[in-house]
Amino acid sequence: VQLLQPRAPDEARLPPRPRRRLQQQGGGAVGLPPAADERQERGGGGGQARGGGAGAARQVPALLHAAADQGGGGGALAQVLPRPAAAGDGQLALRGRDAWAVLHVDVDAFFAQVHRRMDPGVAGVPVAVQQHQDVIAVSYEARALGVRRHMAPAEARRLLAPAGGRLVHVPTKAGGQVDYSQYRAASAGLMRLLAGLAEAYGAEMERGSTDEAYVELPPAPGLEPAFGVPVAEEVRRACQAQLGLEVSVGVAPNKVLAKLASAAAKPAGVRVVGSGAEAEALLAETRASRLPGCGGKLAPALEAAGVRTALDLQRLAATEAELGAALGLGAEQAAALWAACRGRSDAPVASKGPPQSLSAQMSLCGEVLRMHPSRAGETSVAGGAPGMLEPVRAGAEPGRVRGVLSALSSDLAERVLEDAGEHRRWPRALCVTLSTHGGELGASGSQKQGPFPARVGGESAGRLAGRVADAAAGLAAALGRRAPDALLAKVSVAAGSFARAPAGG
């Protein structure tokens, strides 16, 4: 990426930035959300990155490396890059519309990269990641061979073989239960690094999902409006050097454009949107389906209307009301889509704090399938023949349902205890959700809630898991009686409604 001197932005056409004040806030590890799906395939080409002042910003590399240490923090960075002057009330005042930038940091092909960290044998070769009978992640080298998410594993293996590529399975525990601990650890390292950067600037960092986050950079003396670009480059290099992860970064005046820019910069690039012309170019190459709120049921309506890009969506209607009528949207959704396709957003970048709930879930097959060859001799946590994944009936097979709940409760108990140590809180509610392949329990499943087991000081994760499984089994049995012979598609166990817990209690 070539760093050029910034030019004055086209104020008449640049999408507006939110006007607000930034809270001074320290960094540190924060709770992780449930693992998100792999980001969609890249949409659009790269762009020209524009840099700010070459002085202080060029000294960031070693300081970001320090921020990536296990302890987090960004003290070293704060010693080199000047802080904006704080207002008397302890807040940072924004100095005009041009004086800050939003960075969207997104890990490229997250699951594939983390697997390469775990298994050096797949480094440098095309790789796709399989979870049971589904392809959930594809490296960019594998995408070039035609491999896509959710294709049949056998087809993915056939496409990878001529190039020496590999189809690997996500880590599993005994019985074929998926183990996401390595992915959560990689996410935690990313969040620590970015939290250190945010702390050093007195800025905000917002976790978007397991593999993405936003950072808003406030103004600093001597740096030009596009000073986020060289910082973004150093974030990218630090993630590679310290975490072994390639990331792409979008730099823009708001969250919507920053996220679209990071997608256009993939893989391993930086894309800056600092003028109206650059925003229009980005929107012209961005698929409309990438805009917030454009997925799901809206996608067929866009296709029917001949809308391919965000710019096409702008031209579809002259007013918000016309857009709503053309796509069958309510007033609120039409207004949000009207703004998004123009790159406008006033959503603040703000820390969300710890998650409101913790959950563990498992997808179950609707037909008999073979387990991955690495688990060929094992019996699934749901029971059945060794080496096979067999359907589970919701109410007619309580023992097999209990096996699934025990595995999920083990994961949930570990996360609850970790959360209690970090945030000094304890859940009060336990929720079990069952969904079936035939929709007998509703299109999105059915759930039942009860009390979460009370905290016992010094209790091991294993003992807590047993108590959670007992409580969950009672809830699941009540749900299963509604459709005893229905085949389960997904089982979820969640803890929520947190209350403050005494230290060491």
Layout: helices, strands, pairs:
Layout: E1 22-23, H1 60-67, H2 75-80, E2 91-92, E3 101-107, H3 110-118, E4 127-131, E5 134-138, H4 140-143, H5 153-160, E6 166-169, H6 181-201, E7 204-209, E8 212-217, H7 228-243, E9 247-252, H8 255-265, E10 270-272, H9 276-285, H10 298-304, H11 310-316, H12 320-327, H13 331-340, E11 357-363, E12 369-370, E13 388-389, H14 398-423, E14 425-436, E15 446-451, H15 461-480, E16 488-500
Parallel strand pairs: 4-6, 9-10
Antiparallel strand pairs: 1-2, 3-8, 3-9, 4-5, 7-8, 11-16, 12-13, 14-15, 14-16
What overall geometry do the principal axes of the alpha carbons give?
A: globular
- How many strands appear in the DSSP assignment? 16
Global Rg = 24 Å
Mean pLDDT: 79
Query: How far do the termini sit from each other?
Result: 52 Å
Strand count, sense and barrel status of the largest sheet are: 5 strands, mixed
Arrangement of strands in the largest sheet:
7-8-3-9-10
| Total number of helices | 15
Report strand %. Answer: 15-25%
| Helix percent band | 25-40%
Report the uncertain regions: 1-99
Helix/strand-derived class? alpha+beta
